[in-house]
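Chapter review: from sequence to fold.
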Amino acid sequence: MARVPRPHVPQQHWADVREALVDCTVLAVACLVAYLLTTHLLSPLYFISRDDDLLGGMWAVIATIFVSRASYQQSWKAGVSRTAATFLSLVICLVYLVFLPFHVWALPVLIGVTALAATLIGRPEDAITAAITTTVLLVVVAVSPQHAWMQPILRFADTVVGVAVGLAAAWGLRAIRSAVKPASSAKNGM
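The token string follows.
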């Protein structure tokens, strides 16, 4: 039986695959850490329901994913952006929810106010993230209206956890890449 020749796959392709595997593994582990921190270690501090714990875990994981970028500097910038947008949404939603319950008309109004506020304070690149955060916060309040005013505060805390874990993962990934890169450069004669 004749052997079918395998197509030549450049060595750079395998280096890219290895790098992607490392990046995705670090992201997956970071998401697990953010989820566990929020749902198991920090949740006793909040004294809230199990549903809120799970929501907090999801929120922290989303923040961790949001911060995951190609470089540490990009991750840092994304972390600042996510934190600023979430804080802006927190302030606007908190002011509203202290005085009024969720109402369907509040959703588009607060989305517009949040996006406008981000733009007016000189952070137009955060308008979309702030508007999305406001949307999710208000829908969460619609689903679970008890202690509605607490949701913006809790979700900001979850965001901070997720951003911190994401930045720690980006820093760790940077260290891994610098440790691996010299070894592969020396191997290739560079």
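Two observations follow directly from the output. The radius of gyration is 21 Å. The chain has one domain: 30-187.
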